[in-house]
Every structure is written in structure tokens, then in C-alpha cells.
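job 3f2a | input accepted
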Amino acid sequence: MRLLAAWLINAVALLALPFLLPSIQVASFGTALLVAVVLGLINTLIRPLLVLLTLPVTLLSLGLFIFVINGLMFLLAAKLLDGFAVDGLLAGIIGSTLYSVISWLLSKLLLSPKS
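job 3f2a | predicted structure (115 res):
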């Protein structure tokens, strides 16, 4: 149940991005659901390999290169799916950062255990 809720939260976070950043377009809620799955798969399968391969650059940039990797993962998802468009690397970097923040905030608000 929690996985389904997290999936829906990520889709809602994706739907909020075009309102905050006009260089990102999401066609519909169904597209947002599909993009959330694809981003999850990309971040699970491809991102760790890229982080390992770019470790020297990441260390030299004091970890800031991770933002570039996240932006590239966002661009890859946009290339793989119709209905999701990112205008460039800078839009991907800003979009992936906003997506992470919005998703984290919604998860904290909706999924945190009640005390």
C-alpha cells in the first residue's frame, strides 16, 4: 500500500513541475504515472553505474556533479517517453531538484507516521 501511495505522490509531483518550470511538459496524469515508474527504474538500474563511473568528477566537484547526473536521468526519461518533455540539461537539473523536493515534502506530509 505504501509503495502505491509513493507512486501516486511521485506522479503528482511530476504534474506540479510544469506549473513551476515551463520548460518541462507532462501531457496527462497517465503520463505522469508512467514517467514515475520509468524514473524509478532508471534511478535503480542506471544511476548507480553512472555515479560509480563519474566518482572522480563528483569528488572534484564536491558532490555537485550528482545534480548533473540527476538532470541526465530526467532527460533520458523524457527521450524514452512521449508526453514528457524536458527542454535541456539545465531544465533537467532544475526539474529533477524540484521533483525531489516536492516528492519529499508530499511524502513527509502524507506518509509520515502519526504520533
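job 3f2a | The longest helix spans residues 89-111.
job 3f2a | closed
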